[in-house]
Amino acid sequence: MALVMEKHKMPEQDPKVRARNFQEVALGYDEDTAVAEAERCLNCKVPKCRQGCPVQVNIPAFIGKIKERDFDAAIDIIKESNSLPAVCGRVCPQENQCEKHCIMGIKGEPVGIGRLERFVADYQLAKNEEIKPIQFAEDAQKVAVIGAGPSGLSCAGDLAKMGYKVTIFEALHVAGGVLSYGIPEFRLPKDKIVRREVENLQKLGVTIEVNAIAGRLFTVDELMGEMGFDAVYVGTGAGLPHFMHIPGENLNGVYSSNEFLTRCNLMKAYDFPNHLTPIAIGKNVAVVGGGNVAMDAARTSLRLGAENVYIVYRRSEAELPARAEEVHHAKEEGIQFKLLNNPVEILGDENGWVKGLKCIKMELGEPDASGRRRPVAIEGSEFELDVDTVIMAIGNGPNPIVASTTPGMETNKRGNIIADEETCATTKEGVFAGGDIVTGAATVILAMGAGKKAAAAIDAYLKSKK
Amino acid sequence: MFKILKKQELSPGIFHYDIEAPRVAKKAQAGQFIVLRVDEDGERIPLTIADFDREAGTITLIFQVVGASTKMLAAKNEGDSIVDFAGPLGQPSEIHENMGTIVCIGGGIGVAPVYPIARAMHEAGNKVISIMGAKTKDILIFEDKMRAISDEVLIATDDGSYGVKGFVTTALQQLVDRGEKIDQVTAIGPGVMMRSVVEATRPLGIKTIVSLNPVMVDGTGMCGGCRVQVGDEMKFACVDGPEFDGHLVDFDSLMSRSRMFRPQEAQAKDHVCNIGLGR
Ligand SMILES: Cc1cc2nc3c(=O)[nH]c(=O)nc-3n(C[C@H](O)[C@H](O)[C@H](O)COP(=O)(O)OP(=O)(O)OC[C@H]3O[C@@H](n4cnc5c(N)ncnc54)[C@H](O)[C@@H]3O)c2cc1C
Ligand SMILES: Cc1cc2nc3c(=O)[nH]c(=O)nc-3n(C[C@H](O)[C@H](O)[C@H](O)COP(=O)(O)OP(=O)(O)OC[C@H]3O[C@@H](n4cnc5c(N)ncnc54)[C@H](O)[C@@H]3O)c2cc1C
Ligand code: SF4
Ligand code: FES
């Protein structure tokens, strides 16, 4: 049979239509397309794809099951190493991971591994199978998980399946972490996917307490003392927004990407005033940054009704850290890329509102520590961009609330918790940590993987203590 | 769900609620606040912990009806519940023994959040002089409570219906004029009031603490919406504050930023009125 060199196309909403609504952009394969895409896989003896996957999902095996139309078996194989396939199938940067290494990618396009993962995950969610609650032993040991992001959720799920009684403490009023407050509805549906994953965990027997801010309502020492937990996993993410510290950042119309996306996603400001949280969006929006977060903020701005949306990024297209697919989607929808530009000042009007963004043009110089060519300002090249809203999407750091109230748990210079790469053990006995709070802002799959590793290590630790 | 155990209208549009939240009550300290949502479609709004009872497991909130969310909250009755209640948030007030003479100033609804601070100052053995300000006598709140924990209480009303006629700064000036040695002023109230207190104490070199109330979303340091300029630093009021050295605060930007969502707030209020409050 001749090889099909191209991926089967992902059905998508038309760019013009979707740029004005919040429904999911990518619609997913149907059964026949999924099977046809699976047929492209060569079932390599030494599957390179698997080495590219941060959690080493057995990719050829699950694709093989799709070929046989045994979708249940396919999803079971994925779930051995990935607890959130419906999420990862949608948001993983596959082009830098599994698909980057796929043999098919040398002469043509790699196998659509992410799309196939999403297909079987959605297939299983749609079946709405009953989830049997775990019967915990009377004297089962208790583990507390702080933070209900992908890392905390996967750690909790694995521990519950091992028979531990797990309580997740979440600061916000909704579980999911960035999956709920950051990544927009049009990339990752909340009710259909995120809430379902969370509910399934609850049905399994995991307790989730929202409105519970560790470090304020209780400390880690209290969790392990009077509250009776035998171990703690900290998965509090990287949720502290950075600003550029340029003049004008306190003007009205300036948001951090976190505030902007939280208002829209978590608080559903796109459905204002039915949902009561307001959002103010102008006609012309500049989003500063070039990562996934910037793309999400830009595409959200468009959907809220902005006419012109610019991405202002100080390096060139090749260095954009966002997923290729998201950059492509953004362009299709009409986002305008102002590359090799760096903001130097936000200009305000007499009422304290943004009226422009002053930028300076950049050129690429010698490679820096990250190996990327360093952007250098071109003297005298300042110009003004006519905008009334500015969204800062230049990265997030670790929130210090838990670390600063947990004596004995050390952090590095940047404030990230220090944890063992293999076991996620921190410098405090019985306390483990993983995900963005340890690595700095990274990816869903790495956070999820750390949660799973930690679950195994916590199990070993608790068994050794018995 | 968090139950409203007690509801009382202190003066028109100003309510006292006791909310059942034992774990928050156990940890609450003067100067801190909570964030609540009234219902599933509600917004997250911050309110100061005006009092707490660790034994009864309750938190007292005093709030003024100003817009959609406070209107919906006011429409609740004793025995009803609200969906979310998170705290205690923010840094507690810095309170210790031997601080000397503290002037605690509360303007309008600001009397409520200043009360637990004044009480703790008093319990730590400091001399507490309280200044309470209101537009007119009828809307003055917490007078008895303030008298019980203050060495002296001064009252200022805009119309002169009670106490001195004028602003809280008029009363403060009286203290200064009579030669009272003031070690610290703590002022809570509307932005304009706090700014005038700060301007009054600046030339006198009196340490002045203010509690800021920028627009907040999460209250945990995640959104940066509550950022304020303090000296040459950008601070997040919800985690670094809400109390700051008043002489360093950029009040213009603070007050301007609190108007960012005015048009939407008006729209939300209309919406809540139209759909009725019992939703
Ligand atoms: C807008 C945006 C888009 C992104 N897009 C992608 C993408 O396309 N693909 C991808 O792979 N990755 C993406 N990422 C990155 C990815 O979402 C994160 O790496 C991942 O969510 C980290 O997971 P986590 O569990 O470590 O932390 P988080 O998801 O941040 O969750 C941490 C949770 O802990 C809670 N918490 C914090 N402090 C406390 C406390 N003191 N007490 C209790 N709870 C607390 C927080 O409220 C939060 O719910 C994106 C991130 C953002 C912001
Ligand atoms: C730390 C802190 C403590 C506070 N303590 C009290 C208190 O004890 N009693 C009290 O009556 N009020 C208090 N406030 C103010 C209170 O949060 C607002 O009055 C309330 O959010 C208004 O909501 P609304 O929908 O009814 O009115 P809106 O019509 O939405 O707003 C009216 C005004 O309130 C302010 N506001 C609106 N939304 C928010 C928000 N999410 N966060 C902060 N301010 C907002 C804005 O300045 C706005 O212009 C406090 C604010 C902060 C930041
Ligand atoms: S590398 Fe590509 S072709 Fe080979 S097993 Fe993996 S997905 Fe299939
Ligand atoms: S309210 Fe979001 S950071 Fe302070």
Q: Going across the major beta sheet of chain B, what is the strand order?
A: 12-11-10-9-13-14-17
Chain oligomer state: heterodimer
The largest contact between protein chains, plus residue counts on each side, is: A-B, 42 and 46 residues
Main β-sheet of chain B: number of strands, strand sense, barrel status? 7 strands, mixed
Alpha-carbon distance between the termini of chain B? Answer: 16 Å
Backbone structural class of chain A:
alpha/beta
The order of strands across the largest sheet of chain A is: 3-2-1-4-16
Question: What do these coordinates show?
Answer:
- The complex is a heterodimer of chains A (466) and B (279).
- Chain A has 466 residues and is α/β, with parallel strands linked by helices.
- Chain A has 19 helices and 16 strands.
- In chain B, the strands form four sheets. Chain B has a seven-stranded mixed sheet with strand order 12-11-10-9-13-14-17, sandwiched between helices. Chain B has a five-stranded antiparallel sheet with strand order 5-6-2-1-7.
- In chain B, helix 5 (168-177) packs parallel to helix 6.
- The radius of gyration of chain B is 18 Å and the shape is globular.
- The chains are: A alpha/beta (466), B alpha/beta (279).
- Chain A binds chain B through residues 171-173, 181, 210-213, 216-218, 239-241, 243, 245, 249-250, 252-253, 255-256, 258-259, 262-263, 267-268, 272-280, 351-352, 399-401, and chain B through 23-24, 27, 37, 41-44, 68-69, 72, 83-89, 217-218, 220-225, 227-229, 234, 239, 250, 252-253, 256-257, 259-261, 263-265, 267-268, 271-272.
- Bound molecules: flavin-adenine dinucleotide (FAD) (2 copies), iron/sulfur cluster and FE2/S2 (inorganic) cluster.
- One flavin-adenine dinucleotide (FAD) binds at residues 33, 43, 45-48, 62-64, 66-70, 109, 112-113, 213-216, 242, 258-259, 262, 265, 269 of chain B.
